[in-house]
Amino acid sequence: MEEIRSLVIGATGLVGGEILKIIKEKGGDVSLLSRSPLNNKSDDLKEYILNFNKIDEFNMPKFDHIYISIGTRLDTSELIYIKESKREKFIEVDYSFVINLAKKAFTAGAKSIAVVSAIGADKDSSNLYLQTKGKMEEEIKLIGYETVVIAQPGHLLGNRPNDKFRFEIPLMEFGAKLFEPLMVGPLKNLRFISAFKVGKAMFNFMNSNKKGIFKLKYEEFMNH
């Protein structure tokens, strides 16, 4: 059986980095597509550096599986309200770049795609963050991939080596841990989740040979 070729877009982020590690541990053929080089990259790892505004100029090789884990780094308050001055850039990164990359990979022959979205994503939401994520999800579904895996995590847990320290993050994570037993039913999906579990679930669904659209939330992350 021919080895599956995977492309990870956004390996410098939390989930993308975990996906990269998982594929490498499994001995898979994996390449990276990034806007900036990955630190401490092994010499045998193929990496394409690209200005995502120029995706049309990129000669995309054929890959079987595409993992997209890119997004704007927002402060906690910006998940509720994004300033006017930041909205255009946010939509460009979290919607336009994701869709353009997905379409480019599909045209090059990719059959399966996994993208990181957010819990509560809804194209009809009055919240710009959730609305943009929802519109991205709907557009991804229409491209034509045989398998579509959409991850909808809550707050991601993991080391962010390139992030500046934000005092509210550890406080928020500590508080969430205390209230976690009370978060049952639909609220369970809001529980904080490790980036590793998200990446592992995405990888497992992509390699399950199932076709269709799969939306992953807290339960799926914990069970895979």
From TrEMBL:
InterPro entries reported in the protein's UniProt record: NAD(P)-bd_dom_sf (IPR036291)
Gene3D superfamilies, alphabetized: NAD(P)-binding Rossmann-like Domain
UniProt superkingdom: Bacteria
Protein name, as recorded: NAD-dependent epimerase/dehydratase family protein
Phylogenetic lineage: Bacteria, Pseudomonadati, Pseudomonadota, Gammaproteobacteria, SAR86 cluster
